[in-house]
What we know:
This protein has 2 helices and 4 strands; from the N terminus they run E-E-E-H-H-E. It is an alpha+beta fold. It has one domain. The protein has a 4-stranded mixed sheet, covered by helices on one side. Strand 2 and strand 3 form a beta hairpin. 19% of the residues are buried.
Amino acid sequence: MPRKSKYQRTDGYTGGQVWRVEYPERDPLDILAPTWQEAAVTAAAAWGMRWQSAEYHQGVKCTPMGHRSQFAGGAGHG
Protein backbone atom coordinates (compact mmCIF):
# COMPACT_ATOMS: atom_id res chain seq x y z
CA MET A 1 0.00 0.00 0.00
CA PRO A 2 1.53 3.37 -0.99
CA ARG A 3 2.21 5.85 1.76
CA LYS A 4 -0.04 8.91 1.77
CA SER A 5 1.77 12.21 1.34
CA LYS A 6 1.81 14.51 4.35
CA TYR A 7 1.53 17.43 1.92
CA GLN A 8 -1.44 18.67 -0.06
CA ARG A 9 -0.48 19.86 -3.52
CA THR A 10 -1.85 22.73 -5.60
CA ASP A 11 -3.25 21.29 -8.85
CA GLY A 12 -0.60 21.06 -11.54
CA TYR A 13 2.29 22.15 -9.28
CA THR A 14 5.33 19.87 -9.51
CA GLY A 15 7.77 21.91 -7.41
CA GLY A 16 8.63 21.48 -3.78
CA GLN A 17 7.92 24.84 -2.06
CA VAL A 18 6.13 24.07 1.22
CA TRP A 19 3.75 26.50 2.94
CA ARG A 20 2.21 25.99 6.39
CA VAL A 21 -1.34 27.35 6.21
CA GLU A 22 -3.21 28.08 9.43
CA TYR A 23 -6.71 29.30 10.17
CA PRO A 24 -8.43 29.64 13.57
CA GLU A 25 -10.15 26.45 14.74
CA ARG A 26 -8.76 24.39 11.82
CA ASP A 27 -5.89 21.92 11.77
CA PRO A 28 -2.86 23.47 10.04
CA LEU A 29 -2.04 22.13 6.58
CA ASP A 30 1.27 21.81 4.77
CA ILE A 31 0.69 22.74 1.14
CA LEU A 32 3.02 22.36 -1.85
CA ALA A 33 2.46 25.50 -3.93
CA PRO A 34 4.51 28.10 -5.80
CA THR A 35 3.03 31.10 -3.92
CA TRP A 36 1.32 31.80 -0.60
CA GLN A 37 -1.81 32.85 -2.49
CA GLU A 38 -2.13 29.46 -4.19
CA ALA A 39 -1.41 27.72 -0.88
CA ALA A 40 -4.22 29.71 0.77
CA VAL A 41 -6.69 28.80 -2.00
CA THR A 42 -5.73 25.10 -1.80
CA ALA A 43 -6.15 25.10 1.99
CA ALA A 44 -9.54 26.81 1.77
CA ALA A 45 -10.74 24.08 -0.61
CA ALA A 46 -9.44 21.36 1.73
CA TRP A 47 -11.28 22.96 4.66
CA GLY A 48 -14.49 23.48 2.63
CA MET A 49 -14.24 27.26 2.92
CA ARG A 50 -14.70 30.11 0.42
CA TRP A 51 -11.27 31.58 -0.28
CA GLN A 52 -12.92 34.69 -1.77
CA SER A 53 -14.48 35.77 1.54
CA ALA A 54 -13.01 38.72 3.43
CA GLU A 55 -13.28 36.73 6.67
CA TYR A 56 -11.02 34.01 5.25
CA HIS A 57 -8.42 36.52 4.04
CA GLN A 58 -8.36 38.24 7.42
CA GLY A 59 -7.82 34.99 9.34
CA VAL A 60 -5.59 32.85 7.14
CA LYS A 61 -1.84 32.74 7.82
CA CYS A 62 0.70 31.33 5.35
CA THR A 63 4.27 30.67 6.45
CA PRO A 64 7.00 29.58 4.03
CA MET A 65 8.58 26.36 5.31
CA GLY A 66 11.26 25.99 2.63
CA HIS A 67 11.67 23.36 -0.05
CA ARG A 68 10.45 19.80 0.51
CA SER A 69 13.95 18.42 -0.16
CA GLN A 70 15.19 20.20 3.02
CA PHE A 71 13.09 17.90 5.21
CA ALA A 72 13.83 14.33 6.22
CA GLY A 73 12.96 11.97 3.41
CA GLY A 74 13.67 14.43 0.60
CA ALA A 75 11.72 14.93 -2.61
CA GLY A 76 11.13 11.25 -3.28
CA HIS A 77 9.30 10.56 -0.03
CA GLY A 78 6.35 12.88 0.20
